[in-house]
Specification:
The structure holds 2 protein chains of 2 kinds. Chain A is an alpha/beta fold. Chain A has 13 helices and 10 strands. In chain A, α5 packs across α13. The two termini of chain A are about 25 Å apart. By secondary structure, chain B is mainly alpha-helical. Chain B has a two-stranded antiparallel sheet. In chain B, a hairpin with a 2-residue loop joins β1 and β2. Classes of the chains: A alpha/beta, B mainly alpha.
Chain lengths: ~375, ~90
């Protein structure tokens, strides 16, 4: 298969095309250069690109992503978007699609409107998992413009059709039965699925939110109405101009992120919250690595499952709680694959090929069940 | 728990000016977050080094060579106001 048409969220910049990152503040921003991902697509001959809009900076826990919607409507072969905290993986799974989050440092972030640089990765949304990994091969690889890239040359993701015999999959015992369908399908492919304890998972939402809020509040300080983007129309002085520009343009969730970030970085809270979160992040990573020594794959829910009609605040709280699953790959740098049906798989760093193999098995199994 | 005074101070630092109704809403969310952040006290992190990235990369340096950069005029095209190669901002000093 070759990727002919791609939907790209416009926080991945395209030269000479208005690229808003889903924010009013960049409503008129026209980048003078291409992001590395767009350049790579062009080099591979993929020039039919639809620009889509993410939620503001792709940082919202609750709002959607245009690239996911576009692929779900069948208007593009694959979509490209930024995975900051796993919300895009969740949205893809809800839309019956796959989302591939590669190992941190696999795809250049040059030209990405960055929010939480230690957590975010550019990834692929797709209907066919093989197409998605093919597209990932096109955009992954060394780039001297991104100093956080792993020095691993060019990637080519591939997998055989040998099923999942002898592949052990660990499921944290905290998870409920929301992944029964995936467990059944992967077991039918030969995998051995068993539960294990991961007591630190309950602390992942706090760690992920503290770190991403701190990084985001720092990253969005560049939006000041001076160098690029929108500026408020009426203001009395420089301070007033900053304040009105940012207040008028940012969404509620971005403002919350900015304020929470300021709070966790304040002198009063830096040690108790920010530094504590960074230390807990190391413990979480070590625990995930230990589990991935025992199991080739960890299986966790892609998100919170079906939402009720409880309103914005309840939706936020529920999305926050599900960070315990969604943000685990972002905190650890591990690759992950969310799948239709609501499960996601996470593997060792740079072991994307096992995710491709498992994803293909899962997709075949779903096809068999659908044809019954 | 964050008070309205705390939030006003955070707004000042974040260069935001929330209307009263939004400040009350933000406070509700902040209380929820603060309550969960406090739970981190239960984790024993004694002797643990903070982790900055999932992958602990060394700095990667590129060769120090001259490259053609984007010109000043091109960069200024995205500025809300500019003149004679400079950004225009309101007067900052009396």
């Amino acid at each position: 298969m070759s990727v002919k048409k791609a939907a790209v969220d416009d926080n991945v910049l395209m030269q000479s095309r208005v690229s808003t990152a889903g924010s009013k503040i960049l409503g008129n921003f026209t980048p003078p250069f291409n992001s590395a991902a767009i350049s790579r697509l062009a080099e591979a001959g993929v020039t039919d690109i639809v620009q889509t809009k993410p939620n503001e900076f792709g940082a919202s826990l609750t709002e959607g992503f245009g690239c996911v919607d576009c692929v779900a409507r069948g208007e593009a072969d694959v979509g490209i978007g930024c995975d900051m905290n796993g919300s895009i993986r969740e949205k893809a799974a809800e839309a019956g699609l796959f989302f591939i989050k590669p190992t941190y440092g696999t795809v250049s972030r040059f030209g990405l409107v960055s929010t939480a640089p230690s957590m975010e990765c550019i990834g692929i949304v797709c209907r066919e998992v093989t197409d998605g990994f093919h597209a990932l091969s096109l955009i992954a690889g060394a780039d001297e413009k991104d100093g956080t890239l792993a020095d691993a040359g060019k990637y080519c993701f591939s997998a055989d059709d040998n099923g999942l015999d002898n592949v052990k999959i660990g499921v944290p015992s905290l998870c409920g039965d929301e992944m029964a369908e995936a467990t059944e399908a992967l077991t039918a492919c030969g995998a051995e699925v068993e539960a294990f304890d991961f007591p630190l998972l309950g602390f992942v939402p706090a760690v992920a939110y503290i770190i991403s809020a701190a990084e985001t509040s720092n990253s969005i300080s560049r939006f000041d109405g001076v160098k690029f983007g929108r500026r408020t129309e009426k203001y009395s002085n420089l301070e007033d101009m900053y304040l009105k520009t940012r207040t008028e343009c940012f969404t509620f969730e971005t403002k919350l992120f900015a304020l929470a970030g300021m709070l966790v970085l304040s002198r009063e809270k830096h040690g108790d919250w920010f530094e504590k979160a960074q230390k807990t992040r190391r413990l979480v990573k070590d625990a995930a690595d230990a589990a991935l020594e025992k199991y080739r794959i960890l299986m966790i829910p892609a998100g919170q499952g079906a939402r009720g009609q409880d309103g914005k605040y309840a939706d936020f709280c529920s999305s926050y709680d599900s960070l315990k699953y969604k943000a685990l790959p972002n905190l650890t740098g591990c690759p992950a694959l969310s799948m239709p049906g609501g499960a996601q798989l996470m593997a060792r760093r740079f072991d994307e090929n096992i995710l491709l193999r498992a994803g293909r098995c899962y997709q075949k199994q779903l096809g068999k069940e659908a044809s019954r | 728990m964050p008070t309205d005074a705390n939030i006003l101070e955070l707004e000042r630092m974040a260069k935001l000016g929330l209307p009263e109704s939004e400040r009350g809403e933000i406070r509700k969310y902040m209380e929820f977050l603060a309550c969960d952040f406090e739970k981190l006290r239960q984790v024993n992190t004694e002797g643990i080094k903070p982790l900055i990235h999932g992958i602990e990369l060394e700095n990667i340096f590129r060769e120090d060579k001259a490259e053609k950069m984007i010109g000043r005029e091109t960069l200024l095209q995205n500025a809300p106001e500019h003149e004679d190669g400079c950004f225009i901002v309101p007067m900052a000093l009396e």
